[in-house]
């Protein structure tokens, strides 16, 4: 029946969320990711920061303080480049070699980790170099 886990493998569009770890400077400033709560591997809850306009509106009953988002899979800050590649791109590369068309699209605000995820840094290569290695093997 529609919506069963087995149907997820045939989704036309898969949407993955990768939560990047805080940088050293963010940690030094005392920032935290307390407003981001991973409910399960497909569901993310965002809670309005305590002092935010959204939280004040929620306290007045005007809006919600928690918003729920669904993804094909959520990857936490501990996810390695290799794990992310294995779970997102590896099958796409195999499909391309079978003559299928595939598209990888990244989206996020500045400094959210798009370049690191796609290109990588140093020995931690990203999706693109790993896909190229797989193609030419």
TrEMBL record:
GO CC annotation terms, alphabetical: mitotic spindle; nucleus; spindle microtubule
Keywords: ATP-binding, Coiled coil, Cytoplasm, Cytoskeleton, Motor protein, Nucleotide-binding, Phosphoprotein
PROSITE patterns: KINESIN_MOTOR_2
Record localization: Cytoplasm, Cytoskeleton, Spindle
Keyword Phosphoprotein included in the entry's annotation: yes
GO molecular function: ATP binding; microtubule binding; plus-end-directed microtubule motor activity
A GO BP annotation: microtubule-based movement
Binding residues for ATP: 108-115
Domain of life: Eukaryota
InterPro entries according to UniProt: KIF11-like, Kinesin_motor_dom, Kinesin_motor_dom_sf, P-loop_NTPase
Homology family: Belongs to the TRAFAC class myosin-kinesin ATPase superfamily. Kinesin family.
PANTHER family found in the cross-reference section: KINESIN FAMILY MEMBER 20B, KINESIN-LIKE PROTEIN KIF11
Annotated protein name in UniProt: Kinesin family member 20A
Provenance organism: Nothobranchius kuhntae (Beira killifish)
């Amino acid at each position: 029946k529609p919506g069963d886990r087995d149907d997820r493998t045939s989704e036309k569009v898969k949407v993955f969320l990768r939560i990047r770890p805080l940088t050293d400077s963010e940690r030094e400033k005392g920032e935290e990711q307390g407003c981001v709560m991973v409910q399960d591997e497909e569901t993310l809850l965002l809670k309005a920061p305590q002092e935010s306009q959204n939280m004040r509106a929620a306290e007045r009953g005007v809006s919600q303080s928690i918003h729920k988002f669904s993804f094909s899979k959520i990857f936490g800050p501990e996810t390695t480049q290799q794990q992310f590649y294995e779970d997102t791109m590896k099958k796409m590369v195999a499909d391309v070699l079978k003559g299928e068309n595939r598209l990888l699209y990244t989206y996020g605000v500045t400094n959210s980790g798009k370049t690191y995820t796609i290109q990588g840094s140093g020995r931690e290569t990203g999706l693109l170099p790993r896909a190229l290695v797989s193609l030419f093997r």
